[in-house]
Amino acid sequence: MYLKSDYSQTGIFLVMKILFYITSLLLFPLVVFSCNNKNSTILPPVTDPTTTNVDTSIVRMFNNTPVILWMEAAANFSRLGTADRMAAIFQKIADMGVKGVVVDVKGISGLVSYNSTIAGQLKTWNGYTQAPDFDYLQNVITEAKKKGLKVFASMSVFGEGLNYGGTKYGKVFSDTAFANIQSQVISVSGDVKKITDVYAYGMLNALQPAAQNYELSLIKELITNYNIDGFVLDYCRYYDICADFSDYSLNAFKTWAGLASVKTTDIVQSWKESNGAVVPGVTGTYYKKWLEFRAQSIHDFISKARSAAKAIKPKIAFCSYSGAWYDSYYYVGVNWASNKYDPSTNGYSSWATSTYKNTGIAEFLDMFMTGDYTSTLTGAGWWTVQGQIDGAKTVLENANIHFGAVDMGNTVWSNLKNMDDAITMILQQNKGIMLFDLVHIDDPSTNQFNIQLYDNLKQTITQGLVGR
């Protein structure tokens, strides 16, 4: 299976990115539900007020780009590994009705899929090697433009290492300076360890200035050297609620909160394991302030990243992806709401302070994608497609252009119609949809229907766009 990143409703690790063919468990709750009557599952389109925070030229671009396809680098490494293969695939997806592609150019390992003078390149994977002079991203741009497709490049921002079956990739393993600023995570017993001593993913501490400066340098290099239509933040967050408990982060929190001293037990008194994840058992005095502090650090970095991108290309679309489950997304330190939305007065006072709303990032983003990764179509709450659509509208307050997303290969669908209905709902009630991932369309073994999905999706997309 090939999996998209993020966390479940309870903050449990949901589905790590399909990067490098790692198979993980989908831990979010899935309710087996499907309506046989299509008319009962597809609701009338909802007309949103025009966003006031986005450049009109970017609004026009997304009005003409309602269907975007994500292409994870490693899962499609050989599939898109030559110009001829890429041309053939891009023709298929254009014929299907896709209008834009998100090309993953930096995965958790930190290796990139473009010509960089800063980062190492991903040139060989699972026995296949791309030609030394093959510039993957430039070829994506060339072939996409031939087919009338917009190109959005994504980066797993704070990912800089991967232990793949004992083979270690990335700077946290090869560079002492990066090893020293990797995230530090807490265990059930309260011990604090380097993330690579516990997990396979070598993420950096998002608060560290050296980490931020390095990632900003990559963003600047990418946008300067490649004619992309948009840039997408991915993994621009903390690993989980168990990160980052380094001395550096604790000292920064102490200063930020104006405390005389702080211990890990002041934040969380005790931890427990839930479905393989380390989560709070009993919270401490400063727990909610700690959550605000973490969200503030991500907010401030995204502000820097947007400024850097717009300074180079003012008309570039600055975008991001997150899971749709806002009620637990604070676990990874991201407040993707509008800064006008106050969770502390909207049912989330158990974790949100009265000033948590100031950490909202929605106004920084021209376009924002949420993963609506459930097969349950209707009903309230954050774990139905309708609930996620409605919830996102509430917390975003029209601050940006919002796309929903469907994970075609890992969501457990009751049948093919169930998936088609989810796609249609998202298309008809949002500005657009992101389809995850190309591999699930092209490789029958990576979706539960065991077929290529091009023809089916062409019909679904055509129907979903009717009446928009």
What does this structure look like?
- The chain is of the alpha/beta class and 468 residues long.
- The protein is built from 14 helices and 17 strands.
- The strands form five sheets. The protein has an eight-stranded parallel beta barrel with strand order 1-2-5-11-14-15-16-17, surrounded by five helices. A three-stranded antiparallel beta sheet has the order 7-6-10. Strands 3-4 form a two-stranded antiparallel ribbon.
- The radius of gyration is 21 Å and the shape is globular.
Defining key terms:
468 residues; 17 strands; alpha/beta; three-stranded antiparallel beta sheet; TIM Barrel; eight-stranded parallel β-barrel
CATH architecture: Alpha-Beta Barrel
CATH C-level category: Alpha Beta
- Give a quick account of the main beta sheet: strands, pairing sense, barrel closure: 8 strands, parallel, barrel
Q: Return Rg in Å.
A: 21 Å
Widest sheet: strand ordering = 1-2-5-11-14-15-16-17
The fraction of residues in strands falls at: 15-25%
- Number of self-contained structural domains: 1
Q: Kindly report how far apart the N and C termini lie.
A: 33 Å
CATH topology: TIM Barrel
Q: Which regions have little confidence, pLDDT < 50, spanning 5+ residues? A: 7-49
Tally of DSSP helical segments: 14
- Please give the number of β-strands: 17
**Helicity, as a percent range:** 25-40%
Structural class: alpha/beta
Q: Which superfamily, in CATH terms, is the homologous superfamily? A: Glycosidases
Outline type: globular
pLDDT averaged over residues? 91
